[in-house]
Automatic annotation (TrEMBL):
Reaction(s) catalysed (UniProt annotation): sulfate + ATP + H(+) = adenosine 5'-phosphosulfate + diphosphate; adenosine 5'-phosphosulfate + ATP = 3'-phosphoadenylyl sulfate + ADP + H(+)
Top-level taxon in the UniProt lineage: Bacteria
Pathway in which this enzyme or protein is active: Sulfur metabolism; hydrogen sulfide biosynthesis; sulfite from sulfate: step 2/3
Chain ranges of the APS kinase domain: 391-543
Enzymatic class: transferase
Binding residues for ATP: 399-406
Similarity comment text for this entry: Belongs to the APS kinase family.
Domain annotation Sulphate adenylyltransferase catalytic: ranges: 171-383
Keyword Lyase among UniProt keywords: no
EC number(s) on file: 2.7.1.25
Single GO molecular function: kinase activity
The name this protein goes by in its record: Adenylyl-sulfate kinase
Keywords, sorted A to Z: ATP-binding, Kinase, Nucleotide-binding, Nucleotidyltransferase, Phosphoprotein, Transferase
Length: 568
């Protein structure tokens, strides 16, 4: 294998003076505010991480990449790097036009000279690139639900790098890494790609890989976008820094990669190789289930766990990087050592803790053994993921007007405050409509805005370790689901359906609104002249008929206790 390419890799940036000039001129251009994923892609396009790409893919390049992993000129490139925009924006742009690309704060990062504009066949892209048009795949879900309908393609003129305020000293462009290797005389360097905290198994694997390849080691974790639900990169980088001390001094380097992963298994592994080649690496570790997205909607793995290795094996010569392949590493108790799963001495006891099991132990505050991880790493993880009984959560009541949501929510709030420990906030339907949503009515659109606002506030409370109790009608399943997703990124979401029947609510008519609704004096009244979609699988369903409020609130407390959210 050849030494890392010692000449710098081409970047797409213009000189400082030209950039200043372009920035002023770009003020007159139509501009597109990049999504977080597009900012990641643009950074690697501009700094040479995606060399030989010179911009967002044109339609011909896109077709080639989707169909057979090659650009129109035959160059190997497995991942569509496209600029997706919405139809309204696309209507303002024609091929031949320059557009300014801005980050989320409005800073101009680059100019795209648009050559192509087209509507992609997303089902085909999903099938060919990700292996199935299945929404359980995070990138397929993104493709259909987040990405815009139209793609723009063309070359990029780079003005400035996206700004990062975190871990600046740990971020390197391909040319900075190449220069670093050159300076230290590292001619053979093996990269380890990761989106997870490093535990002992990873350390053993990376050690062995460096030894096998007779190379120095680069820990090259992704800090751009990884799989939804992963440990956040702030925590991970603190964990990596803690583990760095465990490697022999001056053999190993840590550098952060602002890549937006797609979790595309084999194709992604090959893409990772090309990116590492561009960063001056000579070797690349591919383990079990590289960039795997988890299970499909039928509960099966999307890819064979070793398909990524097969893919990289096939193309490594063409890319010019050598794969170091690894089986899954497990701990052998008798030997007090890690082994690849296919080299375990016969008859020995194998210990392993899966990612799911680790998360359970963290959640429940259980022991995490020393053979599995380093105390410094466990300490960091416990700081970010305290046991469930110390985390924030949201209780989300839903049901008809007059079903008893507010009354039960109030009783629950008081009981939780009596227990103490975490601040409790009640976001009651009526109160929210007075303070947060006073301009809104009761159309589907307005109800959705109202519920999303409640969801946003509850997610912030949950993130910051508090308890949010929400009690709106929230009649639509899809909106409740999106609020659940927003909150579950930070803590538990406990949906409680207050299942009092519409007949009972109308009979009670505590506010006299049902009468007005029947008389047509209130329009779009839920249950009378507007829909209510019952939750299919709420965490708890309360049928309030003949039950005391106190009893209902107690049932919610029991549920919270069984979920480990409060201690008895
Ligand atoms: S939603 O659908 O979740 O946005 O509704 P929400 O914010 O919970 O507001 C419901 C309260 O507003 C009163 N109200 C109506 N409810 C339903 N439909 C119509 N058209 C309507 N007009 C006013 C009603 O008192 C609800 O209070 P609750 O607390 O649910 O009894």
């Amino acid at each position: 294998m050849s030494a890392p390419n010692l000449v710098p890799i081409p970047e797409l940036y213009v000189s400082y003076d030209s950039a200043q000039k372009l920035k002023v001129e770009a003020g007159d251009l139509v501009s597109w505010d990049l999504t977080p994923r597009q900012v990641c892609d643009l950074e690697l396009l501009m700094n040479g991480g995606f060399y030989p790409l010179k911009g967002f893919l044109t339609e011909a390049d896109y077709d080639g990449v989707v169909e057979n992993m090659r650009l129109a000129d035959g160059t190997l490139w497995p991942m569509p790097i496209t600029l997706d925009v919405n139809e309204d924006f696309a209507a303002k742009v024609e091929p031949g036009q320059d557009i300014a690309l801005r980050d989320q704060e409005g800073v101009i990062l680059a100019i795209l000279s648009v050559t192509d504009k087209w509507e992609p066949n997303k089902a085909r892209e999903a099938e060919k690139v990700f292996g199935a048009d299945d929404l359980a795949h995070p990138a397929v879900n993104y493709l259909h639900h987040t990405a815009g309908k139209i793609y723009l393609g063309g070359p990029i003129t780079g003005i400035q790098q996206p700004i990062h305020y975190d871990f600046k000293a740990r971020r390197d462009t391909p040319n900075e890494l190449r220069a670093y290797f050159r300076k230290l005389g590292w001619r053979r360097v093996v990269a380890f790609q990761t989106r997870n905290p490093l535990h002992r198994a990873h350390q053993e694997l990376t050690f062995r890989a460096a030894r096998e390849a007779q190379a120095n080691l680069l820990i090259h974790p992704v800090v751009g976008m990884t799989k939804p639900g992963d440990v956040d990169h702030f925590t991970r980088v603190r964990c990596y820094e803690a583990v760095l001390d465990k490697y022999p001094a001056a053999t190993t380097h840590l550098s952060l990669l602002n890549l937006a992963m797609r979790m595309a298994g084999p194709r992604e592994a090959l893409w990772h190789c090309i990116i590492r080649k561009n960063h001056g690496l000579t070797h690349f570790i591919v383990g079990r289930d590289h960039a795997g997205p988890g299970k499909n909607s039928a509960g099966e793995d999307f890819y064979d766990p070793y398909a990524a290795q097969d893919m990289v094996r096939q193309y490594q010569d063409e890319v010019g990087i050598e794969m170091v392949d690894f089986k899954h590493m497990v701990y052998v108790e008798e030997k007090a050592q890690y082994y690849p799963v296919d080299e375990v001495p016969e008859g020995s006891t194998v210990l392993n803790i899966s990612g799911t099991e680790l998360r359970r132990r963290l959640r429940e505050g259980l022991e995490i053994p020393e053979w599995f991880s380093f105390p410094e790493v466990v300490k960091e993880l416990r700081r970010t993921s305290p046991p469930r009984a110390q985390q924030g959560f949201t209780v989300f009541f839903t049901g008809f007007s007059g079903s008893g949501k507010s009354t039960i929510a109030n009783a629950l709030m008081v009981k939780l405050m009596e227990m103490g420990g975490r601040p409790v906030t009640l976001l009651d339907g009526d109160v929210v409509r007075k303070h947060l949503s006073s301009e809104l009515g009761f159309s589907k659109e307005h109800r959705d805005i109202n519920i999303r606002r409640i969801g946003y506030v509850a997610s912030e409370i949950t993130k910051n370790g508090g308890i949010a109790i929400c009690a709106p009608i929230a009649p639509y399943t899809a909106t409740r689901r999106s609020v659940r997703e927003m909150i579950e990124a930070y803590g538990a979401f406990v949906e409680v359906h207050v299942a009092t029947s519409i007949e009972e609510c109308e009979k009670r008519d505590r506010k006299g609104l049902y009468k007005l609704a029947r008389e047509g004096k209130i329009k779009e009244f839920t249950g009378i002249s507007d829909p209510y979609e019952e939750p299919a699988n709420p965490e708890l369903r309360l049928d309030t008929a003949g039950l005391e409020v106190d009893h209902c609130a107690h049932q919610v407390l029991l549920k919270l206790e069984s979920m480990g959210l409060i201690k008895a």
